[in-house]
Amino acid sequence: MIIETRGLRKSFRSRQGREKKTVEAVRGVDLRVDEGEIFGFLGPNGAGKTTTLRMLATLIVPDGGEATVAGADLLRDPGEVRRRIGYVAQGGSTWDDSTAREELVLQARLYGIGKSAALERAARALSAFQLSEYADRKCKTYSGGQRRRVDIALGIIHEPRVVFLDEPTTGLDPQSRAHMWDEIRRLRSEGMTVFITTHYLEEADALCDRIAIMDNGEVVAEGTPDSLKRSISHDVITVGLNGATADAAAVLDSVAFVARLEKLDTGEGLRLFVEDGATAMPQVLRELERNGVTLKSIELHRPSLDDVFLTKTGRSLREK
Amino acid sequence: MKFLRDCWLIFARQMQLLLRNPIWVFVGVFQPVMYLLLFAPLLKPALSPLGVTSDAEAYRVFVPGLLVLLAIFGGLFQGFGLIAELRAGVIERSRVTPVSRFALLLGRSLRDVVSLIAQAGIITILALFFDLRVFIGDLLLAYLMLALIALMTSAVSYGVALAVKSEDALAPLMNTVAQPVLLLSGILLPLQFAPGWLEDVAKWNPFSWAVDGTRALFAGDIGNDRVWQGLLIVSVLTVLSVWWAAREFARSVR
């Protein structure tokens, strides 16, 4: 367990005209993040993801609750937490007139690393993030994706055990996003724990080992993307048949992993509700073949994370 | 030790960026140079009631005031750079490192001091062409005064910038502070001309003491009480300003 939080809370006071309002941004978050995983915070804007992340990165003091980050107590020893983590903010972190190399060397040195070691680390980070070619050009000449890679390189220059990335791919084109996912997976393969926030369903699904869905300051669901999807409804296998529907239904009804079975309205097929569609599909094929039923088509529909969000909050994340 | 190292890192980076665009140092001296060329020549006749009879004497009164003006204004407007850095995320990036918060302030303010002294040097050399003469020891002490003022005003500006976080708020705020300070310090014309009440008000302006002290130094009158009084007042205020701004840094840059 590299991050563990209990009841983490934060509210902000805001003023609208004369009226003072207290906004509860984070209302009691319990989290457990394992070492070496990519953990994702999924939720709409304003859900409290960034606030939680900033608390864990020692940038805001929580109002209540407790947390251990990378083995150090967040409230009692924020300085030690700071040394052990990296943090990459959403809005970028480079100065227009500096070069990537200068920024990396300075950042390493601010962590107390000596000059020659800092130069060495900067060079290594530049080549790891495929930035060597532009290393000595000013940051203002970089593309969005390049600049984002410099941000991430800055966040991990001191080789932290955990790195927090706040919306690392927001505003990137699809190609840069895919590239960024590869970079993030590379960090995991180097043993780092990566904690990201995102409001992209695809990103949470494809990139994260485990996710917590956040809405309105609370975690409404937590688990691997697959287990979350499975928890709300079964995978659905639709089998298309040319006649022999009744035979097929008889065969499949007796198979243990089929939780429920219904005939399609057209009468030309069956809908099977199963726990795990991926492993069920070949078995369905085999069962039907063994009993001499020929099938026209087979299709798997798995619930998406949006279905999970919808079930837990009554709203769709995609419309946001 | 760590503090000094952190200070040096921040200072070196800020210097590097300043030297990359040294044009700003020259833009900064443009206005004072204009005063020197276009305003100072009016002074010999205007100051004749004070016994000024030559250009050299007029410049000896005017140049020290001009330098203090430069130090005050140059410092007060440094906050704009900090707001740009806040916006770029550079400050946030420093916040997550264990760097000393005080060093984040002092490293920047020291860069401002160096740039001010460079500008003061340019103006002093230009003034030499107008027959200004000053002893090197007196000059160095005057530069110390200027350095303290620049340190004070830039620290205040950074502290305010962190609090207001917007250029739109910082500009009018700094102008509002700077204008009465300027008028009540006898920078453009010595306060000997002032009616009694104005002179009394000006006594409460620490910068008028600084201007008097700097003028005494340029006049070669190092023993004048105004020299040590000015230095003392400015030193105390500098310590207070830096202390306050450092607290702002520590608080908002936890």
From TrEMBL, chain A:
Superkingdom of source: Bacteria
Keyword line: ATP-binding, Nucleotide-binding, Transport
Main location, first listed in the record: membrane
Topology in membrane: Peripheral membrane protein
All copies of domain ABC transporter, residue ranges: 3-241
Compartment annotation: Cell membrane
Family statement drawn from the similarity comment of this UniProt entry: Belongs to the ABC transporter superfamily. Drug exporter-1 (DrugE1) (TC 3.A.1.105) family.
NCBIfam families, A to Z: drrA
Name this protein carries in UniProt: ABC transporter
TrEMBL record, chain B:
Keyword tags: Antibiotic resistance, Cell membrane, Membrane, Transmembrane, Transmembrane helix, Transport
Domain ABC transmembrane type-2: 23-252
Family annotation (InterPro entries): ABC2_TM, ABC2_TM_bact-type, ABC_2_transport, T7SS_ABC-Transporter
Protein's membrane topology: Multi-pass membrane protein
Subcellular location: Cell membrane; Membrane
Transmembrane segments: 21-42, 62-84, 113-136, 142-164, 176-198, 227-246
Family: Belongs to the ABC-2 integral membrane protein family.
Name listed for the protein in its UniProt record: Transport permease protein
Species per Swiss-Prot/TrEMBL record: Asanoa siamensis
